[in-house]
Amino acid sequence: MKNHDEFVEHILELMQPLGPVSAKAMFGGYGIYINDLMFALVANDILYLKTGAVNLSDFEKRGLRPFSYQRKGKTLHMSYSEAPAEALDDENTMQLWANSAIEAALTGKNGNS
Fold first, then answer.
1. Domain limits of the chain?
2. Is 77 helix (H, G, I), strand (E, B) or coil?
3. CA–CA distances in Å: residue 55 to residues 26, 59, 95, 104
C-alpha cells in the first residue's frame, strides 16, 4: 500500500475483511477496488461509494451527497455517493455499506442498473 495518504490507508484497513481491497491513484484522488472492480472513490478526503438501483435510496434517505465535479463549466454527477460518517469509524458498518457498493458495481457492470 505505497504512496497512499493516511485517509486512504484508514479506508483500506476498514475494508480489508471484504477481501483483496486496493487503491489506485486517479485524477487527483483514488479508486478503491476489490479485485478489478471499482466500487468506491476518494476525492478530497471524502469516501464515495458506488450507487445504483440496489442501494441509491439508502444514500438518499440519509441525505448523503453524490460525487460531482466541474467540466467545461458544468457540474457533472457520477453514480457514487458520500459514505456515512459512522462507516469511517466502525469496521462492521463499513462492511455493510461497502458490500452494497460492491453489489451496485457488479449490477452496473452486468448492465442491470
1. 6-109
2. strand
3. 25, 7, 14, 7
CA angle (12, 25, 58) in 5-degree steps? 55
Fold of 6-109: Yope Regulator; Chain: A, (3.30.1460)
- Give the contacts of 61 (CB within 8 A, at least 6 positions apart): none
Neighbours of 12 (CB within 10 A): 17
The reported pTM is 0.90
Q: Encode pLDDT of 37-86 as tens digits.
A: 999 999 999 999 999 999 999 999 999 999 988 889 998 889 999 999 99
